[in-house]
TrEMBL record, chain A:
<dbReference type="GO" id="GO:0000479">
    <property type="term" value="P:endonucleolytic cleavage of tricistronic rRNA transcript (SSU-rRNA, 5.8S rRNA, LSU-rRNA)"/>
</dbReference>
<dbReference type="InterPro" id="IPR037875">
    <property type="entry name" value="Bms1_N"/>
</dbReference>
<dbReference type="InterPro" id="IPR012948">
    <property type="entry name" value="AARP2CN"/>
</dbReference>
<dbReference type="InterPro" id="IPR030387">
    <property type="entry name" value="G_Bms1/Tsr1_dom"/>
</dbReference>
<dbReference type="GO" id="GO:0030686">
    <property type="term" value="C:90S preribosome"/>
</dbReference>
<feature type="compositionally biased region" description="Acidic residues">
    <location>
        <begin position="496"/>
        <end position="520"/>
    </location>
</feature>
<feature type="compositionally biased region" description="Basic residues">
    <location>
        <begin position="1"/>
        <end position="11"/>
    </location>
</feature>
<keyword id="KW-0342">GTP-binding</keyword>
<dbReference type="GO" id="GO:0000462">
    <property type="term" value="P:maturation of SSU-rRNA from tricistronic rRNA transcript (SSU-rRNA, 5.8S rRNA, LSU-rRNA)"/>
</dbReference>
Automatic annotation (TrEMBL), chain B:
<dbReference type="GO" id="GO:0005730">
    <property type="term" value="C:nucleolus"/>
</dbReference>
<dbReference type="InterPro" id="IPR013791">
    <property type="entry name" value="RNA3'-term_phos_cycl_insert"/>
</dbReference>
<dbReference type="InterPro" id="IPR016443">
    <property type="entry name" value="RNA3'_term_phos_cyc_type_2"/>
</dbReference>
<dbReference type="InterPro" id="IPR020719">
    <property type="entry name" value="RNA3'_term_phos_cycl-like_CS"/>
</dbReference>
<dbReference type="GO" id="GO:0004521">
    <property type="term" value="F:RNA endonuclease activity"/>
</dbReference>
<dbReference type="InterPro" id="IPR013792">
    <property type="entry name" value="RNA3'P_cycl/enolpyr_Trfase_a/b"/>
</dbReference>
<keyword id="KW-0690">Ribosome biogenesis</keyword>
<dbReference type="GO" id="GO:0000479">
    <property type="term" value="P:endonucleolytic cleavage of tricistronic rRNA transcript (SSU-rRNA, 5.8S rRNA, LSU-rRNA)"/>
</dbReference>
<dbReference type="Pfam" id="PF01137">
    <property type="entry name" value="RTC"/>
</dbReference>
Length: 1133, 363
């Protein structure tokens, strides 16, 4: 056996030339579609998939630079490990261990992200509030126990309020010992979690607890997930400003509290990052659990937990120092303990001033800064270490030749304000140091200006400044230039000298506020000083500061436009107390502008006269497309304008002198700049087209996205040069700013029963949301809520920021004709509910609860839905049936009583449709005088005396005006809030029996059987009737019939015959059955045969078809080849 | 919850204040209405306007003092729908249309309002200008589909007899305006109408107007619109309404109405010169429509809206002040081209309030 040679290797017959190993690179054919149709389908599918991936473009109002911290809420049933997780995460981010976590904890997690952790306790109110503000929810689930009711309730709350991102976290998995059980548990819990959130929702598993924390690697993984998570803006939060208060303080004077024994309304400040949209003054805020409150003031504070700035920006990772930053005023962190109304500063270890290595909490810093103040203010000013801006390098110097510096720093005025005002500033200064209100300066030191003014009023739009008598200052217009010209000139030339001169009028305080914001363009300012002076000498008009004129002066609009404000204002200032003067003036005014509320301007004939001039008319040509820039003389000037700032209309083109003198500031420079900008734009366009010609053609989605981002950029840029305070007035406080909001008239219980473990959310209200009305919602009872909901039972809604109890009425749309009241909510169906309460915008989601208490058994979310409509009246009707009985019946007419009680009522219902129970329709005709309320009615047929007649009508009902906000934060036991109870609940609690109405009890209804009398036709009548109509009532036959009387007895032959016939029939039956069976057998056989034949035939046909197709294919290929050849030829030509 | 009452004195700027109150939902109190006048209190057209506002809203409470010199308005919601209103003969339909145009986009149901009275007079915008100029101003704000003003009958003062129907769609939110390019005038249109006078009058007006305008551009169409019989109202009268449109669809308008003893040619010249004066002033919005555009900018989404306009009229100035007290929004008003001393044009920019039509019904 062994010597037998092995079989020689036989190489495979398959040609290896096309083998896989010979192929290089991507095989295009492998994934190419097999047919055109398939290619088409694949293309369609790809496009569809791409479209399905897109979301509706939404504006994200949260800025990309300096966004507010992301709120990460840790939610779960008690004992699941929330605090442990929070501590672990905080330790991961800041390397600090918190002992006692209360309230929000803010940490820096990355170069562009901060996180605010908040732990949500098990109270339903807290869950609702947290659900409204959380950006990311860490939903903790006890793996050894499974899901709890609170988890599902919380998920439903989230769903109603916009559904933020949710990460599930399974804990206590170490309690499951068996690996198989662990695996199974994980699987089932994951499945349940996925059905609740979405398929593939992230679920983390935390094994055991080590040293009071979760394992570091697991926390690291989780923290990485948190820090890179992206968030989609939620509609409600994107239209409301809000903040999560991380600090709260009571500012009420202690004395007031003492006098009122702690019962007075408090003034409270809350601190936090603005989120959502811009927070604006003048709107109200709502603190869920407290109520609507008025904002007295808002101020931006320094960021207590700032993002890393430029110097650390260079590295990829966060510097170690930044990692230590943590802001949690309510917890014992950073040495600051926040305790109701005091702040305790804990200094760790050895504390020495000047030791900068130890991180300083803000409290520490503050105290140390206070201690630092060594010198008095006067000394400070003398040393002049006051800097104009934080960024400015030079200090202010108080001496005679400071004017130059001054002018440098505030240079911007040339853009917006008239220069002589500045001049006057300078003039004021020498007299300044003797001024009484000098103390004010240090506060306003940021302005760096030594002129006398009120530092709180740095804004051109400040409303308070209206009351200041001496703050009025306006640019003059042509009309008064006549008398003031010399004065102006004088000032201007003085300014050039840089000499100070005391002028009697001390105006222009307000101007400074908007001027000192920007500090560039100094050289330019100086450059054209003389030019501008020249311009002014030639009688050109000065520019008005419209913002100031409009918003912070008490001139009438007419005066503002006429521009004669200065003298008028002075007069007014002098005669503030002179009543007589005022009266006369106002009367005069009234006469003149009786018809001021007209939209068409009165024709100004002088103005029009001007236009009669031919030259004037010709000068207007430039404003038309045909005009171009062909005119000589005017032309070059026009060009200049065009290049300087787009085209614009020259107001006084006719005034030759004016237009020539007012040349643009620096035509060369501006022209060059414009040209450069133009070139830049062209270059960009070219690059774009060259790089990707397709890119310039945008689809709808990208277009929208671009539009949004462009608008956001514009929002940022538009007010960039406005000083911060003025900017806050114009656009509010932007999201991301750390603000302090002062709230007035806060109930004292909020402070007295303050508990930092309950979140304080400050939600901004829109103007409409402050109003009340009837709100119509689409509502569905939650399928897990066991009871049905009943109309007029109180229900607690969580709608918008608010939680409130109200009394809804349920209804359904009845054939689009009416809203019909429902007594109970329908099963598995939406219905409408209408209630009285604060208005919310349509499309706002809500959830409703019967009770918020913890002891309520079962699932507490009783309904969810969405707001549909807001109105001041509700159109809900319920059916009412009025019944009556006929008391006299004619042919089609009946007299009906007992439906109404008076003739007046009948008169109201004349013409109404009525019906009997049996369905005979009729109409109310006219009331009868007796008995009261009886009426005549006609019917389509004769009614019976026994019929009940009813009138179906609709009765309009309005929901009760009941609104009861859930003031849970005001209670000492926050979960013990109890709203209006049901009557039954009150009775049960007080042990009162339900009063029984005798008429309402059910009694056995006795219905005596109706007996009908036999129809008796009188004999006489019978006789007269024709035969066909005669009643055929005959008595039943009493005697038996012939057949009944006889019994059948058969003869023997007869019996035999009958038996024989039976046998024959039986035989026949059997024969038929056998024949049938045989036939069916044969048929089956035949069918088989036929099938076989068919099969054979089919094969043949297939073969034939194959042949045909092959030939066709060959032919097509040949043709194609031929065509290609031709095509190639053609291409060549 | 007691809302903050906003308090004003005097009868001036009544219409816009009422509109602002209804839009913002803040109650309004006005006192000292012509208290020193020989004929104190509200006038008949003001009462009529209040009636009209009551008709177009639901739940509005209007209290007028016994003397008629004080007024309290607690606004309800704007309901819209089919409404008919007879305007008194003391003011034209334009007086009533102006507040209605501002309210209509924010109502619950689309407006179908029929106003009867004087259609053209010299105090308020005529219905022609409303149709051709005011309504197109709403287009950049996203209010265009189904926006229509139908002039059923014309009515000249003093007897009136005209009838217009105003249809307006409902919007959810107005778009943010960014309108800073005035462009150049590319076409001029005009309507010369004459009722109960010789139809030749309108042709004469057109001739006269063309004598000035023909020099500028060829694209001038002045229509002669003659109403006859029942549709021409009860009094004789004629007027010329002109509008100029720029390449960026800026609209300037002017008009002149017949006066006794003045030839139609002079009326036409007056209108034409007024139009040229308006064109000369420039900006993206003409003087009559400043308040309309500014209000829509305030009501825009929470973005920065910008518009270039001429100097504010007294009406506009008071309006800006009122807007601040109702909405808390103030405008940034800066020179449109700061380099140029001569230009009086201003750039108005504001941060919209994000006003959403809460009255609108969902499905």
């Amino acid at each position: 056996m062994e010597e037998r040679p092995h079989k020689a290797h036989r190489p495979s017959k398959v040609d290896k030339g096309k083998g896989k190993e010979k192929q290089h690179g991507f095989n295009e054919k492998a994934f190419a579609p097999k047919s055109g149709r398939r290619a088409d389908r694949q293309g369609r599918r790809n496009v569809e998939r791409d479209q399905a991936r897109l979301h509706v473009p939404l504006v994200n109002r949260t800025p990309d630079t300096e966004p507010p911290p992301v709120i990460v809420a840790i939610v779960g049933p008690p004992g699941v490990g929330k605090t442990t997780l929070l501590k672990s995460l905080v330790r991961r981010f800041t390397k600090q261990t918190l002992n006692d976590v209360k309230g929000p904890v803010t940490v820096v997690s990355g170069k562009k992200r901060r996180l605010t952790f908040i732990e949500c306790n098990n109270d339903l109110n807290s869950m609702i509030d947290v659900g409204k503000i959380a950006d990311l929810v860490l939903l903790m689930i006890d793996g050894s126990f499974g899901f709890e009711m609170e988890t599902f309730e919380f998920l439903n709350i989230l769903q109603a309020h916009g559904f933020p991102k949710v990460i599930g976290i399974l804990t206590h998995l170490d309690l499951i010992k068996k690996a198989a059980t662990l695996k199974a548990t994980k699987k089932t819990l994951k499945k349940r979690f996925w059905t609740e959130i979405y398929q593939g929702a992230k679920l983390f598993y935390l094994s055991g607890v080590l040293n009071g924390r979760y394992p570091d690697t697991e926390i690291l993984n989780l923290s990485r997930f948190i820090s890179v998570m992206k968030f989609r803006p939620l509609v409600f939060r994107n239209s409301h400003p809000y903040l999560l208060a991380d600090r709260i303080e009571d500012l009420t004077p202690r004395e007031q509290v003492r006098v009122s024994k702690g019962k007075c309304d408090r003034t409270v400040t809350v601190y936090g990052y603005v989120r959502g949209t811009n927070l604006r003054m003048g709107t109200k805020v709502h603190i869920p659990g407290v109520g609507d409150l008025e904002m007295k003031s808002v101020s931006i504070l320094g960021d207590p937990c700032p993002l890393p700035d430029a110097d650390s920006e260079k590295r990829r990772k966060l510097s170690e120092k930044k990692k230590l930053l943590i802001h949690a005023p309510m917890s014992d962190v950073g040495g600051v303990v926040y305790d109701k109304d005091a702040v305790y500063i804990n200094v760790p270890g050895s504390f020495t001033r000047g030791n900068n290595d130890v991180p300083q909490g803000e409290g520490e810093q503050m105290v140390m800064d206070l201690q630092e103040a060594g010198a008095t203010l006067e000394d400070g000013v003398a040393k002049s270490h006051i800097r104009l801006f934080e960024s400015s390098s030079k200090h202010l110097i108080v001496d005679a030749d400071m004017d130059d510096d001054e002018e440098d720093t505030e240079s911007s005025a040339d853009e917006e304000a008239s220069d002589d005002q500045e001049e006057e500033d300078d003039d004021d200064e020498p007299g300044f140091e003797t001024d009484d209100d000098f103390e004010a300066v240090p506060q306003g030191a940021n302005t760096g200006r030594l002129s006398r003014r009120n530092p709180t009023r740095t804004l051109p739009v400040a409303s308070s400044s209206k009351l200041q008598p001496n703050d009025v200052d306006y640019g003059e217009s042509d009309s008064d230039l006549g008398d003031e010209d010399d004065d102006d000139l004088g000032r201007r030339f003085e300014m050039e000298d840089g000499d100070a001169l005391d002028l009697p009028d001390d105006e222009d305080e307000n101007m400074d506020g908007d001027e000192d914001g920007d500090e560039e363009a100094v050289p330019r300012w100086k450059q054209n000083l003389s030019e501008r002076a020249q311009a002014l000498t030639s009688g050109s008009r000065r520019r008005k500061d419209w913002m100031k004129l409009i918003y912070s002066s008490n001139l009438t609009p007419e005066e503002v436009v006429a521009g004669k404000e200065e003298q008028m204002e002075d007069d007014e200032d002098e005669d503030v107390d002179n009543e007589d003067f005022f009266r006369i003036k106002s009367v005069a005014k009234r006469e003149e502008d009786e018809e001021v509320d007209r939209s068409k301007e009165r024709v100004n004939s002088e103005e029009l006269k001007r236009l009669e001039d031919e030259e004037m008319l010709d000068s207007l040509r430039r404003l038309f497309i045909t005009g171009g820039s062909t005119q000589e003389g005017q032309a070059e000037e026009d060009d200049e304008y065009e290049e300087a700032g787009g085209d614009f209309e020259d107001l006084e083109a006719g005034d030759g002198a004016a237009s020539t003198s007012a040349a643009p500031v620096d035509p060369e420079a501006s022209r060059a700049a414009a040209l450069a900008a133009k070139k830049e734009e062209l270059k960009r366009k070219f690059d774009e087209q060259y790089d990707d010609p397709e890119a310039s053609k945008l689809d709808f989605y990208t277009e929208k996205k671009d539009e949004i981002s462009r608008q956001l950029q514009l929002n940022l840029d538009e007010f960039k040069d406005v000083p911060a305070e003025a900017r806050a007035l114009v656009e509010g406080y932007r999201p991301g700013a750390y603000v302090r909001i002062e709230l007035v008239d806060v109930p004292c219980e909020m402070i007295e029963n303050f508990d930092p473990t309950y979140p304080i959310v400050v939600g901004g209200l829109l103007a409409t949301e402050e109003r009340f009305g009837y709100v119509q919602v689409r509502l569905k009872r939650h399928r897990w809520f066991v009871k049905t909901l009943k109309t007029n039972d109180p229900l607690v809604f969580s709608l918008g920021w608010r939680r409130f109890q109200t009394v809804p009425i349920y209804s359904l749309d009845d054939h689009s004709i009416r809203m019909r009241m429902l007594k109970y909510t329908p099963e598995h169906m939406h219905c409408y509910a209408t209630f009285y309460g604060p208005v919310s915008l349509p499309n706002t989601g809500f959830c409703a609860f019967n009770s918020l208490g913890a002891e309520t058994p079962g699932f507490r979310v009783s309904a969810t839905g969405v707001v549909l409509d807001i109105d001041r009246s509700a159109k809900i009707v319920k059916k009412i049936k009025l019944t009556g009985v006929p008391y006299k019946i004619f042919k089609n007419t009946a007299f009906v009583k007992d439906m109404f009680t008076s003739a007046l009522e009948v008169a109201k219902f004349e013409g109404a449709n009525i019906r009997t129970v049996s369905g005979i329709r009729g109409q109310v005709k006219k009331g009868l005088s007796k008995p009261d309320g009886a009426f005549r009615a006609t019917f389509e047929d004769k009614v019976l005396m026994s019929d009940i007649i009813f009138l179906r009508a609709w009765y309009a009902i309005q929901p009760r005006k009941f609104y009861n906000p859930v003031t849970s934060l005001l209670l000492s036991n926050k979960s013990a809030w109890e709203g209006m109870r049901l009557t039954g609940q009150v009775r049960r609690e007080q042990g009162i029996k339900t009063p029984l109405n005798v008429n309402s009890t059910y009694k056995k209804i006795e219905r005596p059987e109706r007996r009908f009398n036999p129809l008796v036709v009188p004999k006489k009548l019978q006789a007269a009737l024709p035969y066909a109509s005669k009643p055929r009532a005959m008595k039943p036959q009493k005697k038996e019939t012939y057949m009944q009387k006889r019994a059948v007895v058969m003869e023997p032959e007869e019996r035999k015959a009958v038996a024989l016939m039976q046998q024959i029939r039986a035989l026949r039956k059997d024969q038929v059955a056998r024949r049938k069976e045989k036939k069916s057998e044969k048929r089956a056989e035949h069918a088989k045969k036929v099938e076989k034949q068919e099969e054979r035939k089919g094969e043949k046909v297939k073969e034939r078809k194959k042949d045909v197709m092959r030939t066709i294919g060959k032919k097509a290929k040949r043709e194609l080849d031929a065509e290609e050849g031709r095509g190639a030829k053609r291409r060549r030509t | 919850m007691a809302q903050t009452l906003i308090h004003f004195s005097g009868h001036h700027h009544l219409r816009l204040r009422l509109v602002l109150s209804i839009l913002s939902g803040k109650p309004l109190k006005i006192d000292k209405i012509r208290s020193d006048d020989k004929n104190p209190g509200l006038r008949d057209f003001e009462i009529s306007l209040l009636r009209l506002l009551e008709k177009v809203t639901n739940g509005t409470v209007i209290e007028i003092s016994v003397t008629g010199t004080a007024l309290l308005l607690k606004p309800g919601i704007i309901s819209g729908g089919p409404i008919t209103h007879d305007c008194p003969l003391s003011r034209s339909v334009g007086y009533f249309l102006e507040p209605i145009v501002l309210l209509a986009p924010f109502s619950k149901k689309p407006f179908q309002i029929t106003l009867k009275g004087i259609t053209t007079d010299d105090q308020d915008l005529s219905v022609d200008l409303f149709r051709t100029v005011t309504l197109p101003h709403l287009q950049p704000f996203g209010i265009s589909d189904g926006l229509e003003l139908r002039i059923k009958k014309r009515g000249a003062p003093p007897a009136g007899g005209g009838e217009v129907q105003f249809l307006c769609p409902v919007v959810k939110q107005v778009k943010t305006l960014n309108f800073v390019e005035p462009g150049k005038i590319k076409r001029i249109r005009g309507i010369a109408h004459a009722v109960r006078v010789s139809p030749q009058f309108s042709n004469r007006m057109i001739e006269a107007s063309r004598s000035i305008l023909n020099r500028y551009i060829p694209d001038i169409y002045l229509y002669s619109d003659v109403y006859k019989g029942e549709e021409s109202g009860k009094s004789p009268g004629y007027a010329l309404s002109l509008l100029a449109e720029s390449t960026t669809s800026v609209l300037y308008c002017a008009e002149a109405v017949s006066q006794p003893g003045v030839a139609p040619e002079d009326i036409a010249l007056q209108a034409t010169r007024a139009l040229l004066a308006e064109i000369e002033k420039g900006g993206c919005v003409d003087r009559q429509h400043q308040t309309l555009v500014l209000l829509m900018m305030v009501l825009g989404s929470e973005d920065v809206g910008r518009c270039r306009m001429g100097e504010p009229t007294p009406r506009t100035i008071q309006f800006l002040r009122d807007v601040r007290s109702f909405f808390g929004t103030s405008f940034k008003i800066a020179p449109a081209d700061p380099l140029d001393k001569e230009s009086s044009q201003l750039l108005y920019s504001c941060y919209g309030t994000g006003y959403i039509n809460a009255n609108r019904t969902l499905a």
